[in-house]
Design goal:
Pfam family, one: Glyco_hydro_3
Oligomer: single chain
Largest sheet: 6 strands, mixed
Radius of gyration: 29 Å
Protein name: Glycoside hydrolase family 3 C-terminal domain-containing protein
Shape: globular
Keywords: Carbohydrate metabolism, Glycosidase, Hydrolase
Strand order of the largest sheet: 9-14-13-12-10-11
Family: Belongs to the glycosyl hydrolase 3 family.
Strand content: 15-25%
GO molecular function, one term: hydrolase activity
Length: 748
């Protein structure tokens, strides 16, 4: 067995050149070995919904052939499961396959927030909500690492677009980072302890993530306690010495020794502390403990069956008028659309898996029903006569009891490496849907897409819509299981479906210009924005239908302290089918000095209920469920005040609510001569004292004219107000006021 305990090796026994060599890759996918020191080379490979272990040449873009592996539902689908068990079962299976293929680290999961539906890589991310993303990702990482390989949570941080991803500066205020773009990473780091964290390509507020000390050391290591390896995204390092000093341990891929020489030269020139090198070497050597070579095997058939089972948990039934679904096996069915025969089941780019097998929905539907006709409807490559294909499809639909149109996006419309320009379906598909809907008795749409697509222009013409996202290699069979009611749909949207692209909160700022993208919407991302400004969407975050019905009642909320509470609610399956229901707990408040979203998801769980069954569900709201990030104090704060706990059918529809009052935190602000007059007057100690000085001690309340004048001047810094107003406060008195304000700043 390889020796990987660096304490036993004695670090000083390795030359500086040897140590530096361990901090970059040997080639595209492996690290360097030091056999004389018992340090093995390990293999990293792409994930996260499968193992992309290349058999021959190296290629990060997924063009080279990789060893066959199971393609499980990607994160876009898992997000809509709202089920940590689904995420965990995928993580465990990927871990087993990684171990069988000799992989030490599987790159993923991706937890970047879906800031815009145009991001070309949204299929690799879970949600527009940081809580949902973080809970699912932590479950994935815990289960994967329990099987042996390590995970690499990515891409840290603020990597929410593909446009100029190698160099764009994401300009984001700290509150937005802390409340929206950091929490999923924080949860994974603190609850799942991933082996590695991958830094992103982009800059964050002007500084490349790969050499951003605030990100990689101050926040990630010191605040969150991360002890693993920070690895670069492939080719993300701009300045190897600056990156190492900032906290980036392992540069990938290899650079032919160039980076190693830069590190050695910097140490010898006194530009880099050798202790920094040693710390990163210790972490990289610890990572090699995951080296076990090829270990065990995986059952491809069992994993395919698992992929089918889990895919059915992820699809979202958006619309189902007049009980159109589930289908009867005796119905005459028309299946239309090339996606039915040639499924789109995963995204393009570095996560592209060489699937062990692929189920087509057309074959699966024919296995359920004897009378199934098929019409191509359109072609993915644009060949053929679109009008003839459309007319033939409409004719096929007219002779059936129900027509199922498979529509969506191909890899030419969305992939890693570029962003979309529209959320519309291709025009040829929209025209097809409308033609079929006009001809058919009933029409069902099944969507295959990695990012949100608009439903406008055809939604009201059809009877049912099943959002399948990208469901992995067994998605075709899973869709058939859902259409025929073998499985009851239980997916819920992990992202909002807007009416128009122009309605999206990042519309005016995405993807930026002149090398910068401004996150001008702040914390108002996704449903937080739509609900706050009361802007209608086609389908809200959290929406999802079932073949059964559920009722929620008996909401009780119990305070368990000044900054936490427990929520209990009863859920009943009021229909005639077994089904799964997602309990969504939102918190709404106006407490505190910052603008808060109308409501924010703060807890959730998915429960399975038999027909007529009721269950009490208890969820805990911790301190963070009520807190905002105070940038001036540099910490999380729970403001004293009222908080409304809401049970949402989705983010737009509240079915039960109750309000509690929390004591929150006692925060006494610090004021100085740079603070505004308004801040001084609102200070609990310095304010009354200042008012007495300004009114000559005559009264605690100024005359009306004086009060109006003070209000007009409330935004002026105190020092300038005194100068502007010609108020001469004795130096000793001013020092006393500043002391009452808690400031050590100058008194004059």
């Amino acid at each position: 067995m390889a020796r990987t305990d660096l304490d036993a090796l004695t670090l000083n026994a390795l030359t500086l050149e040897q140590r530096a060599s361990l901090l970059s890759g040997r080639d595209f996918w492996t690290t360097k070995a030091l056999e004389e020191a018992g340090i093995p080379s390990i293999t990293l490979c792409d994930g996260p919904h499968g193992v992309r272990r290349e058999a021959g040449g190296s290629d990060h873009l997924g063009l080279n052939e990789s060893i066959p592996a199971t393609c499980f539902p990607p994160a876009v689908a898992v997000g809509s499961s709202w089920d940590p068990e689904v995420a965990a079962r995928i993580g465990a299976a990927v871990g087993r396959e990684g171990r069988a293929l000799g992989v030490a680290v599987v790159l993923g999961p991706g937890v970047n927030i879906k800031r815009s539906p145009l991001c070309g890589r949204n299929f690799e991310y879970y949600s527009e909500d940081p809580l949902l993303s973080g809970v699912l990702a932590a479950a994935h990482v815990n289960a994967l690492q329990a099987e042996g390989p390590g995970a690499s949570v990515k891409h840290f941080a603020a990597n929410n677009q593909e446009t100029e991803r190698m160099r764009v500066s994401a300009d984001v205020d700290e509150r937005t980072l802390r409340e929206i773009y950091f929490p999923a990473f924080e949860r994974v780091v603190t609850q799942a302890r991933p082996a590695t964290v991958m830094c992103s390509y982009n800059r964050v507020n002007g500084v490349h993530a790969s050499q951003n000390r605030w990100l990689l050391t101050d926040v990630l290591r010191r605040e969150w306690g991360f002890t693993g390896v920070v690895v670069s995204d492939w080719g993300a390092v701009q300045d190897r010495v600056a990156a190492l000093a900032a906290g980036l341990d392992l540069e990938m891929p290899g650079t032919g020794g160039a980076s190693d020489r830069r590190i050695v030269d910097a140490v010898r020139a006194g530009e880099l502390d050798e202790a920094v090198v040693n710390a990163s070497v210790r972490r990289v050597v610890a990572l090699t403990r995951r080296h076990g070579g090829v270990s065990g095997a995986f059952d491809a058939d069992a994993h395919h069956a698992l992929a089918r089972e889990l895919a059915a948990e992820c699809a979202v039934l958006l619309k189902n008028e007049n009980g159109t679904l589930p289908l009867s096996a005796e119905a005459r069915i028309a299946v239309i659309g090339e996606f039915a025969a040639k499924p789109r089941f995963q995204g393009g780019g570095s996560s592209h898996i060489n699937a062990t097998r692929v189920d087509a929905a057309l074959d699966a539907i024919r296995a359920h029903a004897p009378d199934v006709a098929y019409a191509q409807g359109f072609t993915l490559d644009g060949s053929g006569d679109a009008r003839e294909l459309r007319e033939a499809a409409a004719e096929t639909a007219a002779s059936a009891d129900v027509a199922i149109v498979f529509a969506g996006l191909g890899e030419r419309e969305e992939s890693e490496g570029f962003d979309r320009e529209t959320i519309d379906l291709p025009a040829v598909q929209v025209e097809l849907i409308r033609a079929v809907a006009a001809a058919a008795r009933r029409t069902v749409i099944v969507l295959s897409n990695g990012g949100v697509v608009s439903l406008e222009g055809w939604h009201d013409d059809v009877d049912a819509v099943l959002e399948g996202w990208l469901l992995g290699q067994a998605g075709g069979s899973a869709v058939a299981d859902l259409l025929f009611g073998v499985v009851n749909p239980s997916g819920h949207l992990a992202e909002s479906i807007p009416m128009r692209l122009q309605d999206t909160p990042s519309y005016l700022n995405f993807p930026g210009e002149a090398g910068h993208v401004r996150y001008g919407e702040g914390v108002m991302v996704g449903y937080r924005y739509y609900e706050t400004v009361e802007l209608p969407v086609r389908y809200p975050f959290g929406h999802g239908l079932s073949y059964t019905t559920f009722a929620t009642d008996g909401l009780t909320v119990t305070r368990t302290g000044d900054d936490r509470a427990t929520v209990t609610v009863r859920v009943t399956n009021t229909g005639d089918r077994a089904g799964k229901h997602v309990v969504q707990v939102y918190v709404s408040t106006t407490a505190g000095p910052v603008r808060r979203p109308a409501r924010e998801l703060r807890a959730f769980t998915k429960v399975s209920l038999a027909p007529g069954e009721s269950r009490l569900v208890t969820l805990h709201l911790d301190r963070r469920a009520f807190a905002y990030y105070d940038v001036r104090l540099g910490r999380w704060v729970v403001a004293p005040g009222d908080y409304t706990i809401q049970i949402g059918e989705n983010a737009s529809s509240v079915v039960a609510e109750t309000t509690i009052s929390l004591g929150g935190d006692t925060v006494v602000p610090v004021v100085s001569l740079d603070s505004t007059l308004g801040e001084w007057l609102s200070h609990p100690l310095a304010g009354p004292a200042l008012l007495r000085v300004l009114t000559g001690g005559k009264s605690a309340r100024p005359e009306e004219d004086d009060e109006n004048g003070l209000r007009m001047a409330s935004s002026m810094p105190m020092g300038r107000f005194l100068s502007f107003a010609g108020i001469d406060i004795p130096h000793a008195t001013l020092r006393e006021l500043v002391a009452l304000g808690g400031s050590d700043g100058p008194a004059a």
